[in-house]
């Protein structure tokens, strides 16, 4: 008979303190009163030295627009918090992009922080001067040597993580007033109620579950709205915050230029490494290592998982396992971007002939993808829509596929909404906003994104490709296992589109010359 599964009393007598003490099963932590006393003495000052961030000059305008959209409401924008990777190890922290946008903070700043926009009192001098909200940045105070957390908290304690920014430092960096995040619990409910004139809450609800739960609890206690209404309010807020990032300001354009320059350096490093790794097991990883090391050296990190796809991996749209061997004669598709410290990322794809020269079929496919990209570029005029870019790209691809005898129906039938057969070889999108997120502004409405006019300040990619899977029996054998994508980053200006990534070689001749040049700079 199976053993009883009734838990023993000793098994269920676990409280939080027991859990915390469990750490002593594997690492013995000193905890005597003598030790505690000893650890707070004999330390010299250790100031975290900081300067105002360049972004701090831009966040006032961003916050003003946000406030004008939601007058009278308390707006809650969490940074997010550490996420456990396993037991007491966390993933590297990256703040939510909306938080980064509205505070101007980047890198790993700041876990557990919350930006709150509090509505100003109507009739107050602030309101009379046109101000709608007062911003407050709630942050965890420094756990320096004067605190017990100094040596107890492996997340905040400066014994563990080194000097970090606290209230004073983050205020200098952002220009925003700061407050201890422990006070958020009390502050969040101030003035909230069911009446029209009471303060109403809106939160970016997908960033930090604990804060969303708090917001929902306050709404319920104060009889403010039903849970479903709360979700709808928050979703509108998320949509607005996403669309607000579509047109980049001068600071953001500058950061994007840096991200693209660092990405070019990363591609240079890949090409220098390429000759020595051809034929080696896991050589895709070796090239990934070259790019990602550069991303950490020049920026914050990669902006998304690098795609290093050689041979039959190239038609796999998001091949990020990168575990394959780069073989002589392969086409090597690399889609990678450096995220700079401000968290803006590039998104660039180039496809290289391993060995340095495109063979005729590779060249034919590659040049068709370039032609499609050029058509997309020409369609991207101020006032045109994303859909216009899409249709221009697709017309070129469908036409060539038809000429090659691969697309068996007419070009017009395939391009019609009822057809779309050519999408078998290009099932993904071919243009998207780019910025703090690689797929930026993702919560925007259709009418603000695909269906909207492209306006000056927007940064986006154009990334056509052709993807012939190795087992695609509908294409001639010489096409099978070939994937090509070319992706560039573009800024729309008053005078038309600017290729921000123009410095990254692209034509057949330029790519071959670039590979030859880098091969000699290992
Ligand atoms: N790297 C993802 C994309 O190109 O959209
Ligand atoms: Mn892209
Ligand atoms: Mn990409």
From TrEMBL:
User: Has the keyword DNA repair been applied to this entry?
Assistant: no
Write out the catalysed reaction: Release of any N-terminal amino acid, including proline, that is linked to proline, even from a dipeptide or tripeptide
Domain of life, per lineage = Bacteria
Q: Which cofactor does it need?
A: Mn(2+)
* Top-level EC class: hydrolase
> Could you say which EC number(s) this protein's record lists?
3.4.11.9
* Domain Aminopeptidase P N-terminal per the UniProt entry, residue ranges: 53-210
Gene3D superfamilies listed in its UniProt record: Creatinase/methionine aminopeptidase superfamily, Creatinase/prolidase N-terminal domain
Pfam families according to UniProt: AMP_N, Peptidase_M24
Q: Name a GO molecular-function annotation.
A: aminopeptidase activity
Q: Which UniProt keywords apply?
A: Aminopeptidase, Hydrolase, Manganese, Metal-binding, Protease
Q: Which PANTHER family match?
A: XAA-PRO AMINOPEPTIDASE 3
In the record, the note on similarity to other proteins reads: Belongs to the peptidase M24B family.
Name-wise, this protein is Xaa-Pro aminopeptidase
Source organism of this protein record: Bombiscardovia nodaiensis
Taxonomic placement:
Bacteria, Bacillati, Actinomycetota, Actinomycetes, Bifidobacteriales
